[in-house]
Amino acid sequence: KLPLKFEIVNCSNYREVAEAIKSMKIRGAPAIGVAAAFGMVLAANSSKARTYQEFVQDIGKAKIYLAHTRPTAINLFWALERVMNLINIKKDVNLFELKDLILQEAKNIAQEDVEINKKIGRCGSLLIKDGDSILTHCNAGALATVGYGTALGVIRTALKEGKKLHVYVDETRPVLQGARLTAWELMRDKIPFTLITDNMAGFLMLKNKVNLVIVGADRIARNGDVVNKIGTYSLSILARENKIPFYVAAPLSTIDLSLKSGEEIPIEERDPDEVTHILGKQIAPTGTKAFNPAFDLTPHRYIGAIITEKGIIRKPYEKNIKKIFIS
């Protein structure tokens, strides 16, 4: 309902958490991962199981249900696996204590997300000069994480360090996360920004109005290919053409080492009504067919660096990603 109305959505069971993720009441790769972890907490608390085996069956059903909400962001599956791994390790603990441990694990995941984002901010700020104008896409701020942001976290940190900045915000069709969410966050934090439509970015770059581009990510393959909100790929090409650095800010949990390239990452397709309607208002003739992929693939060759909590990863990505995971 943002930016016109701010509401807190309360979920009392894991099915409500799943619905909130699927309907994008909560969105952003880190945020849906943390939400899913708390969905597992709700599933554990509602379980009537008397034995460990029965409990695992109940939680397993919840995990599958939550995992089927959105297919692209790896953080969702990472958080679910982390909770399940805890359950598997603690099989000798009584169920009351196990439920408390699951709650604590979800709280840990949430708190770690804030700390990780702040570390990403400190690493990424090194790439920003005083006076820079930064173009960002979609929303990779507090609303997409637990509370600080990845791409916006870098911007927040640079400002705290005393750098003067200006942010250009892509509206990010079709759901307008830039106009509705990123602009809302920046205005609340009194960060200078200008909203643009997605098709204005190239003109701004041509007129030397943009010094660098920073975006978030929903999944990164081990070769450095990035899947992020639809429109990211176009920006990367425009940045290359105009010799502007293009950076991706994301936690290591967004990197999927099991995938050789981004071609293996599933791309979610959403309801065509998101394209033919804006905030419920129809903008295309009745019966219009629409294509609505929620994400696109940006090949690693267009990416200047990947900013993580352990530092800045540069090319060759496959070698340096492996190196940062074992450091």
Keywords:
Rossmann fold, 13 strands, 327 residues, globular, alpha/beta, Four Helix Bundle (Hemerythrin (Met), subunit A)
Short description:
By secondary structure, this protein is an alpha/beta fold. The protein has eleven helices and 13 strands.
Characterization of the model:
With 327 residues, this protein is α/β, with parallel strands linked by helices. The chain folds into two domains: 14-117, Up-down Bundle (Four Helix Bundle (Hemerythrin (Met), subunit A)); 119-325, Translation initiation factor eif-2b, domain 2 (Rossmann fold, 3-Layer(aba) Sandwich). Helix content is 43%, strand content 14%. The protein has eleven helices and 13 strands. The termini are far apart. This is S-methyl-5-thioribose-1-phosphate isomerase. Keywords: Amino-acid biosynthesis, Isomerase, Methionine biosynthesis. One of its GO terms (biological process) is L-methionine salvage from methylthioadenosine. Belongs to the eIF-2B alpha/beta/delta subunits family. MtnA subfamily.
| Share of residues in strands | 5-15%
**Helix vs. strand class:** alpha/beta
State the fourth-level CATH superfamily of the largest domain. Translation initiation factor eif-2b, domain 2
User: What's the number of structural domains?
Assistant: 2
Q: Rg, please?
A: 20 Å
Shape: globular
Number of strands: 13
Protein name: S-methyl-5-thioribose-1-phosphate isomerase
GO molecular function: S-methyl-5-thioribose-1-phosphate isomerase activity
InterPro entries: IF-2B-related, IF-M1Pi, IF_2B-like_C, Initiation_fac_2B_a/b/d, M1Pi_N, NagB/RpiA_transferase-like
Family: Belongs to the eIF-2B alpha/beta/delta subunits family. MtnA subfamily.
